[in-house]
Specification:
about 190 residues; seven-stranded mixed beta sheet; two-stranded antiparallel sheet; about 30% strand
Length: about 190
């Protein structure tokens, strides 16, 4: 049976409000869906597609096997990045590597992240069209850790389409590059 519903994403504040302490403690007491035999995933709507088209493809079994409960993440919602400071530092190094190669990168790419029920990124699929950029951005996102959504009482694996925008700036002294990702975090490098 296919479940299409609005997902409630558990946050640290909600976990604390429920008397569960930290996000890590909340994860420890909430089973992963797979651990209890439930086939359930969360999925964001890919850019350029409409929710209705995605729902139709899911109902025809084109994306996941029949019997998988799929919860579509509402537009504008995302997952909380738990290691944002670390990720920003890694992003600065990634951007520095692009600049050192003399690259000017402008535009938005989508990175499909597969996030397990522990909140770890297990796979990335960047789509910039440039192999060097894809490799560096894929490596960056492999280090991200997220607060996994709890849906129907268990933590789910998530497929999240993350927009990443690059802007090259040159103030006449040194080239600079900015990277912004879906959660609104901007990382400048000069």
């Amino acid at each position: 049976m296919l479940l299409l519903a609005v997902v409630t994403l558990a946050t640290r504040a909600e976990a604390g409000a429920q008397g569960q302490g930290t996000a890590a403690q909340a994860r420890a007491i909430t089973a992963a869906c797979a651990e209890i035999g439930v086939a359930r995933v969360a999925l964001s709507v890919p850019p350029g597609r409409k929710r209705q088209d995605l729902e139709a493809a899911l109902s025809r079994g084109e994306i996941f096997p029949q019997g998988t409960d799929v919860v579509i993440i509402p537009e504008g919602a995302g997952l909380q990045v738990l290691n944002g400071d670390h990720l920003r530092g890694q992003a600065r190094r990634t951007l520095g590597r692009l600049i050192s190669r003399g690259m000017q990168v402008d535009g938005t790419m989508i990175v499909l992240l597969t996030i397990d029920a522990e909140g770890k990124v297990t796979e990335t699929a960047p789509s910039s069209g440039n192999r060097a950029v894809d490799k560096l951005v894929g490596e960056l996102w492999m280090e991200a850790e997220f607060e996994p959504p709890v849906i129907g009482g268990c933590r789910v694996t998530t497929l999240l389409h993350m927009p990443v925008t690059f802007a090259t700036a040159d103030d006449g002294r040194r080239p600079g590059l900015h990277m912004r990702w879906g959660t609104g975090i901007t990382v400048p490098v000069r």
